[in-house]
Amino acid sequence: MKEFVFLLVVLAFLKSCNGQAGAELTRAQEFLEKYEREASEIFYKSALADWAYATNITEYNSNKSVEVNLESANFTQVYAKLASEYNYKNYNNETIRKQFEGIADQGTNAMQDGEKLKRLKQVMAQMEGIYAKGEVCGAPPDYDCMNLEPGLTRLLAESKDYDQLAFAWKRWRDVAKGEMKELYEEFVQLSNEAIRDNGYNDTGEYWRSWYDSPTFEEDLRQLLEELKPLYKELHAFVRTKLQETYKNNPFPDSGHIPAHLLGNMWSQSWINVYDLVEPFKNKTSIDVTPEIKRRNMTAREMFDIAEKFFVSLGLKPMPQEFWNNSMIVKPDDGRSVVCHASAWDFSHGDDVRIKMCTDTTMDDLVTIHHEMGHIQYYLQYHDQPLMFQTGANPGFHEAIGDVMALSVSTPKHLNKIGLLKELQEDNATDINYLMLQALDKIAFLPFGYLIDQWRWSVFHGDTTPEQYTEEWWDLRCKYQGISPPVKRSKDDFDPGAKYHIPGNTPYIRYFVSFVIQFQLHQALCKEANQTGPLYKCDIYESKEAGKKLEKLLQYGASKPWPDILKEITGTSKMNADAILSYFEPLTNWLKKQNEGKSTGWTESKCPDVNYDIELPTATEWLEQFDKEYSDMLNKDVNAQWDYESNLTDYNQAIMINSSLKMSEFNKERTKQANYYPWRTFPDSSVRRQFEKITLYATDVDSDKLKQKKDLLANLTAIYGEATVTMTDGKTLLLEPGLTEILKYSRDFNELKEAWLKWRDNSGKLMREEYSQFVELSNEEAKTANFSDTGEMWRSVYGMDTFEQDLEDLLTELQPLYELLHAYVRKQLKKTYGSENFPTSGHIPAHLLGNMWAQQWNNIYDLVEPFKGVEKIDVTPEMIKQNYTVKRMFTTAEDFFTSLGLLPMTDEFWNKTIMVNPEGIQMICHASAWDFYNGSDFRIKMCTEVDMETLVTVHHEMGHIQYFQQYKDQPALFREGANPGFHEAIGDVMALSVSTPGHLKTIGLLKDTKNTHESDINFLMKMALEKIAFLPFGYLIDQWRWSVFSGETPKSKYNEKWWQLRCKYQGLSPPVERSEDDFDPGAKYHIPANVPYIRYFVSFVVQFQFHQTLCNEAGHQGPLYLCDIYKSTAAGTKLGNLLKLGSSIPWSDAMQQFANTNKMSVAPLMEYFKPLIDWLKEQVPENERGWDKNTCDHVTEGDELKQWLEQYERDASFEYYTMSEADWAYNTNINNETELHKNLADLDLSDFKKEVAENVSGYDWQNYKDKQLKRRLVKMADIGTSALKDKVKLKQLASLLSKLASTYSTAKVCLTPTNCVNLDPELEEILATSTDYDELTAAWKGWRDASGKKMINDYEKMVELSNSAVQELGYVDTGDYWRRTMYESETFQTDVEELLVQLKPLYENLHAYVRRKLMDQYGENRFSQDSGHIPAHLFGNMWAQHWNNIYDKVIPFKDKPGIDITPQLQKKGYNATGMFQIAEEFFTSLGLGPMRQEFWDRSMVVRPAGKDVVCHASAWDFYNAKDFRIKMCTGINMEDLITIHHEMGHTQYQMEYSHQPIPFRDGANPGFHEAIGDVMSLSVQTPKHLRKIGLLTSTEDDEETEINYLMLMALDKIAFLPFGYLIDQWRWSVFSGETPKSKYNEKWWQLRCKYQGISPPVTRNADDFDPGAKFHIPGNYPYIRYFVSYVIQFQFHEALCKAANQTGPLHRCDIYQSKEAGNKLKEVLQMGSSRPWPEAMEVMTGQRKMDARPIIEYFKPLIKWLEKENVQERRGWSDACPPERVSFGTNGKKKKSCVTSSASYIVLNYPTVLVLILIINMFQYFYH
């Protein structure tokens, strides 16, 4: 029973386990099915991307391929991780287990670092791209550029030219040098790192794992050993035949075959040398290539043949997708493609493809069968799981195609398909066939073996990058027995020349395939019942063989490859039996052929490669060469001369033809010269001549040479014929027109126009041709064994360290150049303004007096150190002495003959061109010419009579002297010791000729005074020529060398040019440059292809020469004063140097001449030492130099413009935000709105401070652009925001907030229950009451409730405000207001004079009003002694306007009044209606209506239940659309006028809203006020009021007119002294003149003095009556109102004139005058963009404020008042009347009903004061 129970338990357990296992397998199967679905899609997508890249190599496709492959990698990683969650290693189901193992095996996709994986993919794509795009240029015979397929492949296959093959072989390997090698090194590291993440030690180990054999490497080695004897026999036979073919060419003694002779770029297949090694020559050829070509067979037809083969076996035809999608020929649309033949499986239905650039050869026919074998494999295993859709092992896939080829390539098969007409069956034919097969199959074996031997050693780390090529050739020499035809180095990367290396395709598969294909062939032949030798077997049309093959293919990788191999062949091992059997007849034959001959080669090392040619005797050849060469040179120079002196197409053609002949001559003679081993000659002169012939000898075909010459002629023609049409319509050549503009103009824009247009019309037009020229020039240079033209040019100097030496010289000279540069920049900024200079320190290139900024002497007048010291430009004296061009030349000749040197020849004088012949276009660039016949020497130049050209004549004649001195040398030596010597000889003369001493000697300088100042001036002028040139002379060829070397491609020409100019010269282009431009071409030497570094060399060595000659001449004193004129000793020394020509190295010539063989800057530095010392004093170190890492046309002004554009956006936002918060507070005063307002003000303050700091970073003080400078001044002057002390800033903010709050919320309690606001209650009392005591109570109560409470705060505010503006450099706040707002040093005096002019009118009005008020209130209320009027009686809280007492002082009471208030009320006008009246006034002038935002957002009536600031104000919200007015409108005439006034502000704001924000203001503050008021001067006229229907009847008589003018005077004239004195008081407070203890005293001193008013009650120091006026606590400058009250009448007069109004000024109404509106608009739109006097001039025709119009306006009233006041006292005492108290009526005292208790004065202070900053001055501007 127990046993039974136990059995039941066990069975239950097993059932449970089996159930769990079954569930696991079901889950695994579902996982695999899901994987299949998703993997098919992702692999399809990846294959499509790879295909797109391989068939169209672009950066986009490369990136896309990388991107998709990364997606695929991610997919692989995800599924590998998912697979690891299954216990697949313990699965019994092998099929499922193997699929899981495949999924888990990620390869390089296992890399965990995503960025590195991406980089790995990129590197692989880049390497493949380099390979695919690789081309070889210049290979004979065509010298075209060739890709590998088919060009180079065909060349290697067909050519039998040893050198041609070597050239192509070597150049193809150059493709792999450099970048690919570096990428491969990176690839190895990344690939290994990735594969380690997959569990392998390196990539090689991973690859070998595919063969699943622990003995794999040993198996391979053993196979190779078995096959080696056959290979050696083949190698020996082939070597013998090749030696016979190339018997005159070198073969290594080591037994190796040169690698380029085997008909294949990699010597992997030797089939293409079959014709050279064919055993039996008279047999029918089995190469069917001729037959293929004879039939004009297409690639498609060749593919059809291959398909037919497979179908004949019963296998599948190619699906339609194959034909639709394959690329079987190289595209002819210019695409770069990977031509390497390959078969593609897209894992997507029947989408299979082949990609190859098919050539019509037998070789490619066989390749097609091979690739279609892959396709057949794909189609057959298509139904296998995705993991098994591959070859049994990688070699199987390769073998399937090749096993077909073993049948296809048989004569029997070729005959069967009609490609081989005659089938010969004999031993010879068999041997020939087997030889052909062996050249393909056996020759390949060691190559197929060694490729991955090399890679595995690289992956393993045994072979380092430095050893790549060395190890490569060690293997090739060892296993293949071949050697490189040319020297290889560690810099080469020959493995990369084979596609599978950059393509990262494992290669051992091919070795495997070459072995097993014979095993498979043998098995299939057996199945096909083929008998006889294996090599004759053809399985074509054998369904039996096909069936067996089909079974193998259908397995895919579902079974281990040994099992599959055994099933097919009967053995599970690879072995060589079948292949050895196949080739047995050939092996035996080869052994017989090689009997007695050495087989094999030295396997231990590669041979050295050297061979040379013997040449005929040299000396005799040289003598003949010299005669011919001189004659050729003479003809060639004549042709050049004819063209450059007369630019015609005919002469150009002659010149080109001559040049071509010269080139052909050189080419042929170079070829001859190279026959001689001249380097071994003991005679240095002969050796040197041969060196010159061969060093620069080129060997390009005549078509390319002609193309190059044509290009050069075209380039020089473009330059020589270029003209520029300037804005003024004048069309100018470079010489003299444009040159004179650059030389003499000081107009920034004219210079820029000339500079730009010259480049547009010269360099820009030649860019394309120049790039072609570079390519041809380099190609030519390369034929002379130079890497490029630049190297060829540098070789002239014969120094390995030449480039470094030049750089060292420039480095030594840099400090001097930087001193000069800094000084010149500083001076030029004074002329052109700092805004036109980059902040990087560069100088705009068009400002230096020369088209190329190479020499700066033409701007000497701008930078002259000491003005007024004698001039050293003798041009005026030359003109005065009637110097001619001929005389300039004879003067120069005299200099040379004075040294004992040669005079000019007769031919020189007869043939030299000194001026441009009329009607002939020639190249004016000065040049000297040697015609190589010993007597004909000439100069060609367009001579101008000036000092600069006189020096140039000496320079060019220096060249002529050199020509004459070395004329007896061999023609090859008739040149300067180096090119710089030639230039230096002329210049060294100029160093003497330019001295004041010499100029005096030859009568061109009357008197010389060698003072320090004159010496510095002279040295400055020399430095502008000599020192300024140095970096330019250096960089020209730095640019060209980089272009020639390929470092700078065509796409970077201009960028590189400006990099160098900016870096070395410290210059920048004046306008933006792009690659559409070609600025180098605007310099003659670029299109003319004249090397330029010679000039840099000459500018250094000329000072060495000068020092040597001065010493020889016995000169004493400073070097810069030396003149060698008439020194025959100096002349003899110089002549000896010149005679040498280039017969010895220049360093030897320099040694003989100057006792040194080095170039040195020491003499130059000695020459300029006084100037260096002086410049150091002028230019501080921090002002020297420039940013050498940037190059931009962007000037400081341009940078500023960009910043200002951003500023405008930011400022608009900040000001809008602040304005909204401020508006919210002013229209609803409470703690919350105050808090928000203060925060907004704080933000704005921070913004302004930041802006000001940014502005300070610009050198705007030195700007010439007045508008820009003005704008920045306004941005920099930030008022109190400048306060740096944060604590004080917060304190100031708090004080200003408190002051504003005190005023705005103050109330006066007339009774304990009646506390009222200023507006409207108190103002209503002041305006309407006639109760003296009530007026007094309101007057005093307001001052107690407001001003008196703020005196202490005000004192602190003054102190802090002063501190703030002092940080801006102002004396005090008053100084700041006056200088920033009115821009006048005489402003205070000007306004004082205006007040003086207006005082008589005011005094008359004052006297008249005083009399009327005395009548009203009793004389006892008035001080009889002083003449003052009590301040509270004027109908206004501040006695600033008196119009509210008009009814008391009206001259003629019986006349109808012009107060339209009753009419407004009668007509039911509301506030909006009154605003519409005002709007209509402005639109009638042609000005704009108010925007909808205005009507939607303005506050035009006092809102109920809110505390508001009722003071009328107009608001600009800085977004060019939101403008508002805030006022508590009453329905009365006064408010109607105010509305017009405020809308005038709004109109101003709208008109200048297009201006930059700093200019969105009045021309000065008074302008803004005046604009509104000038409208009221029309609006208030009876004429206007009648016009708009608000005045029904008035009388136009003198009395009515006097009434009207009285009303106006009470407003306008009464205000003037008040408008003046407010800021007089404040300025005295700010300046410290008035301390706190004197505040009120000073206030009343001014009011009593200027207004003639006095306080109605006693005032003392505890009072603070100024604070009772809004603008004092509000801290708003007030003098603007005085200004506005004057200039509004000037404006009124001007507008009335524009409106053609006649009659008295006070009657003028400009309503409906578009002419007046246009004039007004012109001024309004200016904003504050120009100084106010300019705006005033636009409006009035004059620039000053003028009281005349206001006096003219009131002229009738003035006369009337003078009559009325005949009996009255006019004026008053300056001092206030004695303090007194006068209460009650008729002398009786009455208790005041004002309660002074603080409990009744409500001051609504905020409970929270935040960090606040209110920028008071600017607030006013905004409102």
Describe the protein in words:
There is one protein chain. The chain is mostly helical and 1823 residues long. Among the domains are: 2-105; 1195-1276. The chain has 73 helices and 18 strands. The protein has a two-stranded antiparallel sheet with strand order 1-2. Strands 3-6 form a two-stranded parallel ribbon. It has a two-stranded antiparallel ribbon with strand order 4-5. A hairpin with a 5-residue loop joins strand 7 (723-725) and strand 8. The chain is flat and about 155 Å long. Residues 1-17, 611-617 and 1780-1823 have low confidence and may be disordered.
List keywords for this structure.
two-stranded antiparallel sheet, 1823 residues, flat, two-stranded parallel sheet, 57% helix, single chain, mainly alpha, 3% strand, 73 helices
In short:
With 1823 residues, the chain is mainly alpha-helical.
Strand content: under 5%
Output the strand order for the largest sheet: 1-2
Q: Largest beta sheet, briefly?
A: 2 strands, antiparallel
Low-pLDDT runs of 5+ residues are 1-17, 611-617, 1780-1823
User: What oligomeric arrangement do these chains adopt?
Assistant: single chain
Overall average pLDDT: 87
The dominant shape is flat
